[in-house]
Amino acid sequence: MSMNPLVAPSWLAARLEDPSTIVLDATLPPVGVTPPVDTRAHYLERHIPGALFFDIEDLSDHATPLPHMLPTPESFSRRMSALGVSDSNTIVIYEQHGVFSAPRAWWMLRTFGAQNVYVLNSSLRTWIDSGLPTESGPVHRAPATFHANLNRNAIADLAQLKDRLARHQQVLDARSATRFNGTAPEPRPGLSSGHMPGATSTPFTDLVEDGRLKPAEKLHEYFAAKNVDLHQPITTTCGSGVTAAVIALSLEVVGAQNVTLYDGSWAEYAQHPDSVIEKSS
């Protein structure tokens, strides 16, 4: 049985003085907001004491035109070590508002072999509203040693995804229902909306309430209503690989054992000329 990846604010508050516990703010700017929100500046203004900024955009692979792709293990090892994060630390990730990008940081760290990675079951906003402490300004940790060890079973490429679709394996899509149905446009120019044949629409916003992940029993009900078999392989996808991790985190909470994230997601799939795109309302 996998561990519960969520921790309560009180659990983290009790460990803020523990040098082996590392807190990361992994807030990505919300999509489609102009000018873009400077989440690093917001981090510098106010963060959980001792928290480091985990810049998903900056840490992604910039050798590909696809957004937010996993970097190489060597690159990730180097960057985490410089940040002061070891793969043996207890790592707790949060974001500034709601649930959007922290699960992607959790998934990246887990996929590169860190064992004790958790997501704070609360946003910074709720942490502050609970009267828990914050600080401002940059945070520096001494360099550490992070040995990235990529779990290839956690990640799917386009060829694997197409094979799974052909074999009618479960593919859960975190994009909005209107993008899935093809009735709303994609935020990325030139990409058709719609969905992969046989995919199930599971908008990541359905997995969230009151700014946090729904409780386990509600997640169980939700996946059951979507006819998701938690004992069979599941591949998660979205627009760029970020909110697919919200589904992956939710599936971890309900005990699914065989979950893969399709890192290229719709940004890759929809631009391939031989990809089948279905539309339905």
TrEMBL record:
Domain Rhodanese: 38-136, 165-278
GO CC annotations, alphabetized: cytoplasm
Transmembrane segments: none
UniProt keyword rRNA-binding, yes or no: no
Subcellular location(s) per record: Cytoplasm
CDD domains: TST_Repeat_1, TST_Repeat_2
Protein source organism: Tunturiibacter psychrotolerans
Gene3D superfamilies named in the record: Rhodanese-like domain (3.40.250.10)
NCBIfam families: PRK11493.1
InterPro entries per record: Rhodanese-like_dom, Rhodanese-like_dom_sf, Thiosulphate_STrfase_CS, TST/MPST-like
Protein name: Sulfurtransferase
Record's keyword terms, sorted: Cytoplasm, Repeat, Transferase
Region described as Disordered: 179-206
Major location (coarse): cytoplasm
